[in-house]
Amino acid sequence: MTLAVALGFGALIGVLLGLLGGGGSILAVPALVYAVGLDMRQAIPISLLVVGVASAVGAVPRIRAGQVQWRLAAVFAAAGIPATFAGTAISTRLPQSALLIGFAAVMVLAGARMLKDTASTGTACDVGQDGIDWRRCAPRSIPAGALVGVLTGLFGVGGGFLIIPALVIALGVDMSIAVGTSLLIIVVNSAAGFLSHLQGLQIDWAVTASFAGAATVWSLIAGSLATRLHTERLQRWFAYLVFAVATFVVVDTIWLH
């Protein structure tokens, strides 16, 4: 029964990932906790596996199209990897109720970002084929990369809802480049987070493979249909769903337990 539930909800997360991009993974942890019946410490590494694989699949065509700023990705990853391990260390010392409340707050932040259009208006960096103004970029990119890493380790989220605004608004990266760069950063941070959470933890690999496999397959299927749908409207309704799930998490954690 557990495997069937994992397959079903993995497919649902995959459809959301394919239609909406990385934001769909924000529901992976709640699905694993409330539907599959895992605790947060088991759900986080599985979520990171789904996030990492889905982001890797999405990053391949972006890399082929040259839509990745490799140096910025390297800076974010260099700041994010140690921060991811730090976030994991914090996560292991917090009670599940605190993790769930914190995750609900992250969900609200992610939903708010989905409702807000991100325009390519940033001018903080001179980012182009000729190079980057690191004097202006470094003070912004290093803290942003560290923050995303901490959130990745703490809650098992990819952090694309923070990375893209940081790249576009704070650093002045073109949106198409920001999306590809963000996916690459998410892959690296998710891999670091997944490995850091495996230490001393018993993983149900059958559930993990079922959930992650279904999510990956269905993300590819849904991704092929995304161009025919009004994804902006879907993203708006998905943001409302995220708010509803965040409310449920808070109510269940505070009042029902």
A few lines on this structure:
Helix content is 77%, strand content 0%.
What is the domain tally? 1
Query: Biggest β-sheet: count, sense, barrel?
Result: none
Q: Give the N-terminus to C-terminus distance in angstroms.
A: 25 Å
Give the mean pLDDT.
Answer: 82
Structural class: mainly alpha
Number of helices: 10
Work out the number of β strands: 0
Q: Helix content range of the residues, please?
A: over 70%
Provide the low-confidence segments as ranges: none
Percentage of β-strand residues:
under 5%
Keywords: Cell membrane, Membrane, Transmembrane, Transmembrane helix
Pfam family, one: TauE
Membrane topology: Multi-pass membrane protein
Subcellular location: Cell membrane; Membrane
Give your account of this protein's structure.
It is a single chain. With 257 residues, the chain is an all-alpha fold. It has one domain. 77% of the residues lie in helices and 0% in strands. The protein has 10 helices and no strands. Helix 1 (2-20) runs parallel beside helix 9 (205-225), helix 6 (134-155) crosses helix 8 and helix 7 packs antiparallel against helix 8. It is globular. The model has no long low-confidence stretch (mean pLDDT 82).
What key attributes describe this structure?
257 residues, mainly alpha, 10 helices, 77% helix, TM_pro_TauE-like
Write the layout of secondary structure elements.
Layout: H1 2-20, H2 28-36, H3 40-64, H4 70-92, H5 96-115, H6 134-155, H7 160-170, H8 175-198, H9 205-225, H10 231-254
Helix pairs in contact: 1-2, 1-9, 2-3, 3-8, 3-9, 4-6, 4-8, 5-10, 6-7, 6-8, 7-8
